[in-house]
Write a structure and sequence with these properties.
Shape: rod-shaped
Oligomer: single chain
Order of helices and strands: HHHHEEEEE
Helix content: 25-40%
Number of strands: 5
């Protein structure tokens, strides 16, 4: 409240105690530390998610690699896979994964070329199949005998031809087809 105008009180300067006599100023509260618990939890969660993603990517790669890697574990397996890729699927790139060197055995290539020509000439699909594979193994080499059944349906009649073949395989890091010969 203000004193009335013209009073003596209003003209007297206020007396203030010297600064040494002032009571100490109240201490300002210490600044509150930011919550590090939330940051720590978020960092841990992000780290765990990153590890899970990395683990999932590695697992996916390994599973994909195993699923798409050609099986060359035994002479009969490599011959079966090679015949399927070369004669049935007619996929040279896939068949190359089962051979010793680039290129395919000449007699087997001649057979496939003949089948392709006949298929085009007569306009009928020609199928190649085989049964059991007989393996004769000596150390890092093996001879695999197989009977190929070549069949087609012409005018509603199934026609087939059976041919005996011997495929030579060799073990390097895994088994590979190196040669093929028609038997009789």
């Amino acid at each position: 409240m203000q004193p009335p105008a013209g009073s003596q009180v209003s003209r007297v300067p206020a007396q203030r105690p010297p600064s040494e006599q002032l009571p100490p100023a109240p201490a300002a509260p210490a600044p509150e530390r930011p919550r590090r618990r939330v940051r720590t939890v978020l960092t841990v969660v992000a780290g765990v998610l990153a590890l899970l993603c990395l683990g999932g990517a590695v697992t996916g790669y390994v599973l994909y690699d195993r699923a798409t890697a050609p099986d060359r574990s035994a002479p009969d397996v490599v011959v079966d896979n090679y015949l399927r890729a070369f004669l049935v699927d007619r996929n040279d790139v896939r068949a190359d994964q089962f051979t010793c060197q680039a290129g395919h055995p000449e007699q087997l290539r001649a057979l496939r070329d003949e089948l392709t020509d006949r298929q085009a000439q007569f306009g009928v699909p020609i199928a190649v199949s085989w049964g059991s594979l007989e393996v004769r193994r000596q150390d890092d080499r093996a001879q695999v005998e197989v009977v190929l059944t070549i069949s087609a349906v012409v005018d509603g009649t199934t026609q087939s031809d059976r041919q005996s073949w011997q495929l030579s395989t060799q073990l390097h890091d895994d088994w590979r087809v190196c040669d093929a010969t028609a038997l009789g």
